[in-house]
Amino acid sequence: MASSPGLAALLLCALFTASAASRFAPADNHLIACGATAPALLPDGRRFIPDSGCASTRLRSQSPTLPTTAPNSPAAPSPLHAAARVFSCHASYDLAIRRRGHHVLRLHFYPLDSTLAAARFHVGAGDFLLLHNFTASSPIIKEFLLPVETDVLALTFVPDAGSAAFVNAIELFSAPEELVGDIATLVTPNATNQTTGLSSQVLDTLYRVTVAGHKVTPFNDTLWRTWVNDEGFLLSKESSGTRSFGGRIAYPKDSRLMTREVAPDNVYSSARSVDSEGTVTWGFPVPAGNRYLVRMHFCDIVSKAMYQLYFNIYVNGRLAVKDFDISGTTGYLAYPYYIDFVVDVEDEGMLKLAITGSKMSRPGEASGLLNAVEIMRMNKTGGGMDGDFPVILDMDYLLSKGIGEFARSLLCGLVFAGLFLVLVTLVMKLRTELKNSGMLWSH
Ligand SMILES: *[C@@H]1O[C@H](CO)[C@@H](O)[C@H](O)[C@H]1NC(C)=O
Ligand SMILES: *[C@@H]1O[C@H](CO)[C@@H](O)[C@H](O)[C@H]1NC(C)=O
Ligand SMILES: *[C@@H]1O[C@H](CO)[C@@H](O)[C@H](O)[C@H]1NC(C)=O
Ligand SMILES: *[C@@H]1O[C@H](CO)[C@@H](O)[C@H](O)[C@H]1NC(C)=O
Ligand SMILES: *[C@@H]1O[C@H](CO)[C@@H](O)[C@H](O)[C@H]1NC(C)=O
User: Fold this and answer.
1) How far is the CA of 294 from the centre of ligand 3 (A)?
2) In the chain, which segments carry CATH 2.60.120.430?
3) Does domain 3-176+387-437 have CATH number 2.60.120.430?
4) Do β-strands 165-167 and 121-125 pair in parallel, antiparallel, or remain unpaired?
5) Residue 82, phi then psi, degrees to nearest 5
6) Domain 203-378: what homologous superfamily?
7) For the whole prediction, is pTM greater than 0.90?
8) How does pLDDT run across 219-257, given as a tens digit for each residue?
9) In the chain, N or C terminus with fewer CB closer than 10 Å?
10) Residue 185 in contact with residue 319, Cβ under 8 Å?
């Protein structure tokens, strides 16, 4: 009798998982609406399950966590913004992993009030610190690509001293294998060279841009990504134009490396082109002192015949590829292709990308183009995106420390109370209700 509701929840989760995937069906697909009381249905067709209602997810905490809902504001931009879960102490979501390998993790933060907007906290995945001293003062989605080599991934939320932590929604799904390669072109001030070991890195998505195209929303993206227009990042353009393509984007037959999951057709159907004398430069503000993965997407949607586009690609002011010949590389026109560059940004805090025409092209005709760009920050150490910090992410350790820690957890509650007087009364009420109904699912 006791197990049947659990089983039902598991089946329900499986059902939602199946209906959520239209073409790409990730082996793992956790879609969690934190603090919500009912499933949230997104415009892209995916259904997020309340964090209390899914058997493949377990929430553990040192002290009660708090579901909180938005004050009745007119129209929340997304159904995921209607609720959040607030943590006063360490808490973790344990997510079951069916298939090890790369996963896409998206954390949705929508501060429901000024206290949450000022909350300072840390977020870990396993023993890796993803976000250190993080503040979501305005709505933000943090996306990470990370290798997962365990059967359970613990997402741990740790309030900084005297503060609280919160999250509105969590997406964790298996990435298609072709999404992350291992080899890239390392661009250093002196030379370009091959670099390997990319697939063990943790990536933090900073920019995803479709060049000269309309914004692509999760509805139209194979992995529910958002691609924004490049206009805001243009630094200069000479002898250039915008292009769009009504034809069909083709993919190499049976290619396991280039598929629609790498990027959707929409982003390849538009581009900015340069003629043989032209230059287009983009600039992306990035935190200095980091290493970046820059993925530039190309698809020759302008040439009428093969071997007509030759152009140069500059990464951070350095010539990274000279006389790049797309059709010669892919063997066809309108076939998508991308190049991964790895580059260190030391002090300027601006990552510049440029394409310039080549003398090898015919004067007055398109010489080169760019269709899309993704910029991802790479992790600094094996311990965290920003380096190593003494933040305890191990819930088993914390929860096993016993009664002495109970006092600590009360203290957390008290500090919390200073910040959330009203909400804490709710906690007490909730606690009693949960105790009475025997439904204490977080302990
Ligand atoms: C987070 O930042 C605050 C203010 O800058 C600092 O006092 C605190 O020590 C930091 N916490 C950690 C764990 O680094
Ligand atoms: C790069 O070039 C500069 C000056 O030309 C030189 O001082 C430096 O040692 C070079 N670095 C590497 C890694 O070769
Ligand atoms: C490129 O990398 C290889 C292997 O790491 C190294 O042996 C070689 O010297 C590098 N070339 C340049 C130009 O830095
Ligand atoms: C999806 O893409 C089509 C074709 O580009 C476009 O007409 C439509 O508005 C897009 N839908 C959304 C929700 O972005
Ligand atoms: C990034 O993290 C991975 C896995 O946690 C680790 O193998 C890799 O060495 C880290 N990168 C750096 C530059 O420390």
Assistant:
1) 20
2) 3-176+387-437, 203-378
3) yes
4) unpaired
5) -75, -20
6) Galactose-binding lectin (2.60.120.430)
7) no
8) 999 999 999 999 999 999 999 999 999 999 988 777 778
9) N
10) no
